[in-house]
Specification:
alpha+beta; Protocatechuate 3,4-Dioxygenase, subunit A; globular
Length: 261
């Protein structure tokens, strides 16, 4: 329920240790053993564990790390307070930046609900890597860009839609999109504390098909060496985070996910 707003911490230094400790406990109970990550995958590997987070209410989408590249003010840059961040098409940079992320088109549709009812007026901030596996504002070659980041306000049905590209794959992580849910658009664009931080996972078949497109060669190689079952975030369960994907590389894809908060 969205009145649990104060229970969710988006900060990197607090979020990552709690996440790892929760997954370690699940591993002791028979869950999947987590893989260590490297390079960009460092986003899910903390230096030392702390207290475990409270488990989400039954049916809620799981809480996940925002990683080290959120650009929400918790770890360096903050795009949420910048003019232009509220947009549906996030393929190009905004403000003083001018680059465009190339890749297979994807329309991402998230339906936010609270207690089973559409969460009208909630705001969702999404971000993800480009087809080379780089995060704008952080990764070498993309530090001057802010593409693949944007905010939308949920309509009366609780839906938000983003036009983007199919994210790439990099060592240690399964293809995914990060997102944060805020109670209102005003809170999102003021970098207030969100009510949910989670991630969307892509089905293997869609990833393999999308990565046949030009520019995804490295992503295809990384995908061949990874799996959802071994991913550092999704290994303990991804049933509520696996998107339904339709389409093809030529015409583009649509990825849909319900987001109960």
């Amino acid at each position: 329920m969205h009145h649990h707003e104060d229970d969710h911490d988006r900060g990197l230094s607090h979020d990552l240790p709690r996440l790892l400790d929760r997954r370690r406990m699940l591993g002791l109970l028979g869950g999947a053993v987590l893989l260590g990550t490297a390079a960009c995958a460092a986003e899910e590997t903390p230096a030392s564990p702390a207290s475990a987070p409270a488990a989400p209410a039954a049916g809620e989408i799981p809480d996940e790390t925002a990683g080290p590249y959120p650009a929400d003010g918790s770890n360096g840059p903050d795009v949420l307070t910048e003019s232009g961040v509220v947009r549906s098409d996030i393929r190009s940079s905004f403000g003083s930046a001018s680059g465009t992320a190339e890749g297979v088109p994807v329309t991402v549709e998230l339906t936010v609900t609270d207690g089973g009812a559409p969460y009208r007026g909630a705001a969702v901030y999404v971000w993800h890597c480009d087809r080379e596996g780089r995060y704008s504002l952080y990764s070498a070659g993309a530090t001057e860009e802010n593409y693949l980041r944007g905010v939308q306000e949920a309509d009366k049905t609780g839906k938000v839609r983003f036009v983007t590209i199919f994210p790439g794959s990099y060592p240690g992580r399964w293809p995914h999109i990060h997102f944060e849910v805020y109670a209102t658009l005003a809170k999102a664009t003021a970098s207030a504390k969100g009510i949910k931080t989670s991630q969307l996972a892509f089905p293997e078949a869609a990833c393999a098909e999308a990565y046949t497109a030009p520019g995804y060669e490295r992503s295809a190689a990384h995908l061949a060496r990874s799996s959802l079952a071994e991913d550092g975030v999704f290994a303990d369960g991804h049933s509520l985070q696996l998107a339904t994907v339709t389409g093809d590389p030529e015409s583009g894809y649509t990825a849909r996910l319900n987001v109960p908060v």
